[in-house]
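Render Pectinesterase inhibitor domain-containing protein in 3D.
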Amino acid sequence: MEKLVLPLILLLIFSIFIVESNAIVPKFIESQCKHTRYPGLCVSSLATHLNPTSQDPQEIAQAALKVSIVKAVYTKNYLEIVSKELKQKKAKEYQAVKDCLDQMSDSVSELTNSFKEFEHMKSAEYSEGDFAWCQSNVQTWLSTVLTDTYICMDGFYGYPMGGKRMAMIKARVLNVAQVTSNTLVLFNGFAAWHRANSNGGFKNKP
């Protein structure tokens, strides 16, 4: 049963991203994104995946999390292809790519855990202690994803593999790191808003 959960969650996220279109960038998204490390990327990645009238920090943080999951899955799939090609050729770079693939697979699991925790947080009324526990879990998983991505990129030092393939791997992994960095900031912003405006549940909206 557990093995079915991840594909179902990913299918839901991907279907949402496919349906939504027509980017509109409301001021509220811009105001939230300006606090991130990569504000331009934040705005561009969220503009097509949010209700343009949204004023909800929770909705923005969750949309950012979905972006991170999609980027991580795409990167993992690409690394699987490259890894198989290098293994067949018995290339010495294979192990570095395989290690990176393992890190990215872990990242997909950690991001999916974060998504499930976020969904669970919305399903019931919470005490502040419960909310703090869930918040800590999500923050830990997102921070671990950042660690995974940089371990992946560090693993390529000393290998001669270059050209378009290496550039593509680095670009995709770096993109996962950047969108996840933004997600962590937006999630922290939501958590701060929650503490300031909620009595323990999710009923109150700004």
